Structures
1.
Amino acid sequence: MIGSVVFYLLAAATLTATLLCITRTSPVHAVIYLVHAFFDLALIFYLFGAPLVAAWEMIIYAGAVMVLFLFIIMMLELATGGKPLTVDRRRWVPVLLLSLVTLACTVLLIIQDPSAVGSGPAYHVSPRDFGTVLFDRYALAVQVVSFQLLFAAVGAYYVGKGEPRKRGEQSS
Amino acid sequence: MTELLITSILILVKLILVFAAVLGLAAYMVLAERKVLGRMQLRYGPNRVGPFGLMQPMADVIKLLTKEDLVPAKADRIMFLIAPGMASLIALLSFAVVPFSPPITLFGRTIPMVVCDLNIGLLYFLGLSSLAVYSIALGGWASNSKYALLGAIRGLAQLISYELSMGLAVVPVVLTAKSFSLTEIVVSQADWPNMLRHPLAFVIFMISVMAESKRTPFDLPEGENEIVAGYHTEYSGMRFGLFFVGEYINVIILGSMVTVLFLGGWHGPLLPPIVWFSLKVLAVAFCFIWTRGTLPRLRYDQLMHFGWKFLIPVALTNVLITGAVMLAVGP
Amino acid sequence: MNLWRDIKGTLQAYAVTFSYLFRKPTTIQYPEERRTPAPRYRARMVLTRDPDGGERCVACHLCSAACPVDCISMQAAEAPDGRRYAAWFRINFARCIFCGLCAEACPTLAIQMSPEYEICKRDPLSLVYEKEDLLIGDGGKDNDYNFYRHAGIGVVNPRGGNADEYGPVDPGALVP
């Protein structure tokens, strides 16, 4: 019962955060909403009994991909969106509401699931099971994806290397 | 229901104890750092407030609390106010999964000496440490100052680079323990610590952890003599204090992670487990201070070259070799 | 491959800092420990006296002229025997930069630098030292020197009567 309530709350929060993300004019605010959506998504994964996927969601998407986004935004000075920042507190109402929902859901999850502190519920997928399924049944898919990543890395390296500079040519 | 209540109260008690211990330790880490650095530079360090300067943390806190809390006029106000709290909070939250000693039995009930023994505790720590970047990024960006922005950009690039090698360095440990749970990782080191089993991984982890804590020689995000104070240039009073304390809490949490993952956690002869644990954490913290007293700051390109072209390939090779050896030798 | 050299260089630095941990700090803990400055240390100025106890200052204004920050001022006066002295003599130590040019300019060794360096005051006006504050009982760095035994008007010996002194020049004799 609590589980489905939490799920719908989180799903709504995820959708709202994503919508807000794509309608923001300031890139940094958009990133914050997107990170928020990832948070909620991770909680949903946890609710479904996949703590490992939830952790990866946090580490890779919120912790690495979005950080790279922020890095690029700051590097290219897109941060202010061209116009000076205004002090408008109403802007912060949605993000505070979303945070409240997420926090409430986290608390609900912990209460609904006392096992998070001890005895391990039946429906939790342990990292071991996850790994077995991933590298056993879906081994080919994992290989294909990893090859794709390798090609992407090589391609990025090739593109990033640029033309070999001739001797005496000015570096730009 | 009573069972749930007792469990909750126990968690609360552990939480408060851990928070108090960590915050007190962080305050005295500041003093210890200043003292040790002073002695390394043939100075005394703070010795005026109280005997041997032991009251210095209180004096610092009073000073920080009574200072004016400035917010720049063009800053993104709420983000600016939230960011320092995030820095300390995320560092404190990581402590939830650190096991201090084996479970103790009190009034006929077994109490695990860890606030919350997640079965993915290691990933929880990695996740939080990757979120720690946001406090720097958002704090630096919200200040709307060029130095703060530069510091934030440096911090982002640095943390994301060294997180990779940190994550790769713990893979051999997970392979040995066959679990992501920190308690089981400690239990797996009963014979000898992982430091001896995976020395290369230990060195890589130590270096990455130093980069992760943004301390010399990896303190480019703050770089006093290049970009004023980096991401916390515009902060004053207790908000600066939160960033500052966050750094020392981070040192303690990273020290305990090194202890748990590589130094065998609470295992040790003669002394009680919790004493061994504290001693090991303090030894790692001393290494951090020692490094700060020894090495100069890296240049930015050196940092990136070292991270991407040396540390990560070495860590990857280490994972490969460890996996191959374990496959060949293991059961 | 310089990896070995790099590792060695890094570890050596660690050894050095660790060994410094056990050295005695070089700090002098000021209010408890004080260092004795050298006799020629340039700190607060004093006005010295003759071996006979008279003031050496002849109010020639050379020190105030030499002073780059103009912190010395005085009023010249003349005693009945023709000897000049300072009616009042004032040094503003809030402005003084302790360069020592006044002591170098002084022809009578009256103004001298002393090693007394602790002259911090809360009120800058109390750093304005009068003649009474500046005068000390002895001759400072050279106790035996008496200007009037070598030159000047006849206070100790008659004019031109000192052993290492020529007699007064007759201006008329210089006319060709």
2.
Amino acid sequence: MKIEFNKTIFINLCRGRNSSKGLPQPTISFDGIYANVRMVHILTSVVGSKCEVQVKNGGVYEGVFKTYSPKCDLVLDAAHEKSTESSSGPKREEIMESVLFKCSDFVVVQFKDTDSSYARRDAFTDSALSAKVNGEHKEKDLEPWDAGELTASEELEALENDVSNGWDPNDMFRYNEENYGVVSTYDSSLSSYTVPLERDNSEEFLKREARANQLAEEIESSAQYKARVALENDDRSEEEKYTAVQRNCSDREGHGTNTRENKYIPPGQRNREVISWGSGRQSSPRMGQPGPGSMPSRATSHTSDFNPNAGSDQRVVNGGVPWPSPCPSPSSRPPSRYQSGPNSLPPRAATPTRPPSRPPSRPSRPPSHPSAHGSPAPVSTMPKRMSAEGPPRMSPKAQRHPRNHRVSAGRGSMSSGLEFVSHNPPSEAAAPPVARTSPAGGTWSSVVSGVPRLSPKTHRPRSPRQNSAGNSPSGPVLASPQAGITPAEAVSMPVPAASPTPASPASNRALTPSIEAKDSRLQDQRQNSPAGNKENIKASETSPSFSKAENKGVSPVISEHRKQIDDLKKFKNDFRLQPSSTSESMDQLLSKNREGEKSRDLMKDKTEASAKDSFIDSGSSSCTSSSSKTNSPSASPSVLSNAEHKRGPEVTSQGVQTSSPACKQEKDDREERKDTTELVCALRSLFSQSNPQPSPSMVGHQQPAPVYTQPVCFAPNMMYPVPVSPGVIPFQCVPFSPAVPNMPQQRQEQHHQSTMMHPASAAGPPIVATPPAAYSTQYVAYSPQQFPNQPLVQHVPHYQSQHPHVYSPVIQGNARMMAPPAHAQPGLVSSSAAQFGAHEQTHAMYACPKLPYNKETSPSFYFAISTGSLAQQYAHPNATLHPHPPHPQPSATPTGQQQSQHGGSHPAPSPVQHHQHQAAQALHLASPQQQSAIYHAGLAPTPPSMTPASNTQSPQSSFPAAPQTVFTIHPSHVQPAYTTPPHMAHVPQAHVQSGMVPSHPTAHAPMMLMTTQPPGGPQAALAQSALQPIPVSTTAHFPYMTHPSVQAHHQQQL
Amino acid sequence: MAAPPGEYFSVGSQVSCRTCQEQRLQGEVVAFDYQSKMLALKCPSSSGKPNHADILLINLQYVSEVEIINDRTETPPPLASLNVSKLASKARTEKEEKLSQAYAISAGVSLEGQQLFQTIHKTIKDCKWQEKNIVVMEEVVITPPYQVENCKGKEGSALSHVRKIIGRRGLKRWLSS
């Protein structure tokens, strides 16, 4: 299983590298799952939601889904392994920054509580609404055309207005008569509406005329009249405000035309025109009355009336024509004026007199009536004149001619002649179209009338912009020349002639540009909005690819390491819990204590600091690397750190063992053991934390108890723990360095225990006991010299080289074996039994924390615990038998080196130990005991075979142990009752065996020093020699089997 | 069981799967990728919220049995556009929230405090840990041992709501004991 874990780690490392290589792929093109649009959509929509990943081995990890790769590898942020035990949330230490799950590693991924409309909520956001508006804007693409149509319809209306202006009543009358035969009943004299005035030369008439003039002048000079004129000026400002300013040149020209129109509008001027025209009419009837001579003059006047009407029509048409000409270029306007000057001289002379006659005739009659009544007459005349201002189209035409008449009346015939000359240009301009219309006839006239209608449509839309824009700046400039110079006024005349007609189209044109502006703005918005949408789309497309590319190759390795650690922890829990169920009532008390300890350990494990976690991680990585024997780059730093730690203990071990051989294999084994020792150190530190007092202090407390029985013996022993306790604390603090110091600590503790036991069992002088403990090392050196046997000499170096490792399991077992001698003398010392019980508890506490980590040695510890419990219940001979069987059996299954180590330990005591075994078995002659031994031997090798196998099989081994213990208890009780003499005889043999097992020097020391023991030694030897011929053939086979196997291992080592 | 080429899971059909770990999963097919053998299913929400759903991504390489309960051949609806920035901010928020909660647990907050935080978080999402204190809507601060009298902050609906929650929890505990 270890190999499999290593392989998976290695494969994951390779996969991590592959994932790193895959990063550029998404940038190049949509590969793998990215090509599946629907899958991409669903996975992208669940980004940021909590999810649980169930991997192949059944583990469940919970975290925040971050991104996925083209191969559907998933990345979780803030991920932790979800355990069913703890219902509370994960701790900070348990959360990993980021974890990568390969597509081949996970089985099911569950994204919890995903809101499908979350990502789609854009539809309800302002940006989404604006997008819809953009769409509406797109729909509005048709609007500018509609606006165009609207403008066209408005232009048509404008044309209608123009037509009304263009058609002269006389022309309409003629057209109707010619085409439709309809004759109008209109009478220019308006006889049906008013009474014509009879002009007389009487003084009364002249007086009335003079009075009317005076009243008019007074009204014009009044403040009200001035205020109203100012209001008209305000109207101008309003026009300026509402018109759109575009070009400076066109603006100036436009302003000039507007100002001229406004100046001619004042009603005061209209009144003067009316008066002048009235005087003209009065003179005409007088000429008619004198005689037939006057009648032909009237006829001539009628003919002249017709001509000026046509002239006025032509003027209107000409007004339309010259406007388009200046639009393309200002230079074209002057040449048109110059051309019109010489051509139009004769028709202008006739036209100015007649057109004004009609409009003034209407207002002139009403003032005659009020003059007869008195003062109220002038008041009534004013409102009527104001009403006359109502029709703006007709009024400006009338105003133009009245000004000319006023000037002629004031200045005389010469000035009037000049005025006629000034009027020539517009009339001349109108002349050519008149000629065109007359020869054309009905059909030609219709065609010609249509042409000017079309032409203003095309041209007017442009000119009104310029005119309207230029209205304000040119106003004052034009006003000043009119006031100063009469020819300047004459020059300005042609411009106002065209101004009325463009006024109405100007308003329409002003509307159209605003509409066009709006359309253009909308178009701009449309153009902008789709671009923004595209940009958003592009951003969304690019960003997911970048986010998806984020992957970390290191995380899977870490996660797998943690998985292994978690699995190990689970096995620990199972291993610890099961033994308690198998224990008996007496053992239940101990098991309860152990359970308490286990619970404490579990709490400690949960509350472990991050530093310890890192140590454990590094330890696990080093274990995997060492087991696989391949140095991976990720594990290299941990290996280096372990190597550094290993050097220290190696130096110390070399110092202790002068003749130790250095081999690579031995180093590897040492590394493995040191790793385990590191874990043991961590547990010891936890153990010390759980106990408020350190173990040395507990030993101190236990020692005072024996003081009552043998105060002299224990008093000097109490001195030893004092110097040891301060040293233990700093070693425990450091997890790695105290690997070696712990061994001597154990040795010292064991030595103390052995010294304590020896005095109790020997019951000799205490002074003699203390020196052997101090000189134990010297005896080890001297023992081979004293014994001349060659095989002992050959085995001695192995024994010394493997000394520290061999002692760790053996010494602990021996420590348990020391208890039986005490129990052997329960009758002699009752209080000592309770004391030794405490010792056993302390041993149990030491053993428990080691079990979960030392898997290879766990079976020995397990048996040690069982032997401890058994020792309390029944005789020492059974206890002596149990620990021996596991030693040789496990040596066969582990590696050759381990076998050699165990073999090295066995050959030294082999002859004595084997003889002792045979003697014990022969004496008891109990088949159940032999069977129990066989079962233990059979079970021992299976646990260390495989790591998970050992964990799983350890509970199985505990089950068969229970019935075996039951069988062994009963025969032990029966045997001592019946065979009291052999029991007494066995007591000294047991002592000798216990003395021999821990160490030869300690065993030999009492033989050499104490004279009382020699008689026991020869008795034991005699017993062994006597027992040899008695054993059964089957028992003889067992020792032979062990001997050849051990020798074979020795040969392999050599 | 890998679907043979040409035979795909149609979107909208009901499918039932059994994984190699004897876990039965059922839901509506949302997406399927033949190359990677990934099947996306939509299931009712585990929390029971009406507008929410659980999305299961199943690796068909480890599925022992696939059963099509209700096959649908209608054309799937068009996919709506996604706000990537919104999703990224959601991921960041979820991560920060989980880390803050884990920090509180490691800081030594009692189980009672953790449960109280979860209860408050169910109704008031604006709830976070400030070392060992629970801060609700930046207005209410609950200090250990998380009792009604430990609530401090600006008077308002948040404070009264939190006190009601704590009081209700205390009542439940008293009744249970």
